[in-house]
Structures are given as structure tokens and as C-alpha cells.
Design a protein that fits this description.
The chain contains 12 helices and 9 strands. The protein is of the alpha/beta class and 259 residues long.
Length: 259
């Protein structure tokens, strides 16, 4: 974090060095008032956030600096494209791990295609190293629901990746995909550098998602399975106010000693 960011950090709330929040959760608020929304997140005690779509996110660097927030991880699609613009932007933002957030479900129905995705990530990783970056991949349900060669397609991907490529496991979508997120995290091991920590009944309807601690996912066990991973709070959507859900999630994780 730069000196300006350190000096501008709000005080009054305890800090949460293991927590982050995926900014997609508060996308409407960001569109209306990016600096103000980032400042509100910092006031919750957050020290870092996870941006999305960084190639088209105007004003993000200044907003992060003003709020005293770092962005160690960020989402930006880069597979199948020349990734250099994305990697350059990530470096400008101080990102260390840039994560491809989505690949079409049909690509995960064939083992050969999954291996091609692994090859693409490996190739991108070599380019990312020139920028001092690590690349990663973030799952949805389809990478887990698809079973190939006796394992989930996500595990097949992991088995074919070089060590330099990381995974960010969205534990909610793992559950939606029909797998036990705790057991899957244990099998994937140290390649998992970040978790999307979210809660709800484990349905495909994103409106069913709720603040962490108010749903049915075994949050404590999930975090215990990868205790060193960054814990990124996210709601894809919700029937309630999502900013309040972020605040409630942080309060819950803090009260349970998970922050």
C-alpha cells in the first residue's frame, strides 16, 4: 500500500487483514459514487477489495488510494485474448493476482477442452510473470457439476496447471454445483489462494444469497480448510441491501473470530 493510502485510512473500526470484498457486490453504488462507496467499505475496517472488469473501471486507482484500500486480487477476463493490456492495468493498480472470472460452461463438458483451458492459463501465466503478476481462475457451478475422469472438471483443471497458476474457489457455487466445498478445498490444497465467502441456501437463484452467517453454508469449516487464503465476501445479488449484507458479513466473521 502506498504512503498516501496509509495516511488516508479511516479510523474507528477494527482492521480485517484477511478479509476483502468483491466490488461486484456493490456495483450500483460504485456506479453512482465510486469514491464514496470505497470510503464506506474502508470504514467497515476493510484493508483491501477485489475489483472486477479493471480494463473499464474508470477512476479506480484514485478511489483506492483515497480510501486507503489495496487490491491484491482482481477479476478480469483474459483467456483467449492478448492479456497484456489487462496485466498492465493490474500492475498499475498494485494487483498481485489477476483472476479470470468465467469461462463458458460448454468448455467444461470435455476433458480435452479442460486441458486446453489449463494450457491457456499456463501460457497467460508466463506472460503475467513479465509484469510481476500471478494468474488465477475463479469457478462457478458448472466447473464442479461436470464430472470428468472421476473428478470434478475443476479438479481436472487443477491437475493440469503449473504451480504458478492459482485458484480462487467460490465456495457457494461449489455447493450449488453439488460438491462439498470443505472436501473440495482440502483436495485442491495450497493452490487455492483466495475464497469467495458467501452464504444462502445453495440455490442457483442469486437473489437467494444472504449475508455470511445467515445461510446454510459451513462457513467456519470452509475457512478452516484453507486458513491462509484471502477471504473475499461476495453476493452476486440479494433480495436485501447488498452493502448492508457486506457490513453484516464482516460483523459476523469478526464476531466468530474468522476475520
Amino acid at each position: 500500500m502506498n504512503q498516501q493510502a496509509q495516511q488516508s485510512r479511516p479510523t474507528g473500526e477494527g482492521s480485517h487483514p484477511l478479509l476483502s470484498v468483491q466490488l461486484y457486490t456493490v456495483r450500483e453504488a460504485l456506479a453512482a459514487d465510486l469514491p464514496g462507496t470505497l470510503a464506506r467499505l474502508a470504514e467497515l475496517g476493510l484493508e483491501q477489495v477485489e475489483p472486477f472488469g479493471i480494463l473499464t473501471f474508470d477512476g479506480l486507482a484514485d478511489g483506492l488510494a483515497a480510501a486507503g484500500l489495496a487490491a491484491p486480487t482482481a477479476h478480469q477476463g483474459f483467456l483467449g485474448d492478448d492479456p497484456r493490456a489487462a496485466f498492465e492495468r493490474a500492475r498499475e493498480l498494485g494487483v498481485s493476482t489477476i483472476i479470470d472470472p468465467f469461462t463458458q460452461p460448454e468448455r467444461w463438458q470435455d476433458a480435452g477442452e479442460v486441458r486446453r483451458i489449463a494450457d491457456q492459463l499456463a501460457s497467460a501465466s508466463e506472460v503475467a510473470a513479465e509484469y510481476g503478476l500471478r494468474v488465477g481462475y475463479h469457478n462457478h457451478a458448472h466447473e464442479v457439476a461436470s464430472v470428468l475422469e472421476g473428478q470434478t472438471a475443476l479438479e481436472l483443471l487443477a491437475a493440469n496447471l503449473p504451480d504458478a497458476v492459482a485458484l480462487e474457489v467460490d465456495t457457494y457455487w461449489v455447493a450449488v454445483g453439488g460438491a462439498d466445498p470443505v472436501a473440495l478445498l482440502e483436495r485442491l490444497g495450497d493452490r487455492v489462494v483466495a475464497l469467495h465467502v458467501k452464504d444462502g441456501p445453495g440455490t442457483e437463484d442469486t437473489l437467494d444469497q444472504v449475508a455470511v452467517g445467515q445461510g446454510s453454508l459451513p462457513v467456519r469449516d470452509i475457512i478452516a480448510a484453507r486458513p491462509d487464503a484471502l477471504r473475499v465476501v461476495e453476493l452476486d445479488d440479494s433480495r436485501g441491501d447488498r452493502f448492508q449484507a457486506v457490513a453484516d458479513s464482516i460483523a459476523y466473521l469478526t464476531s466468530e473470530g474468522l476475520a
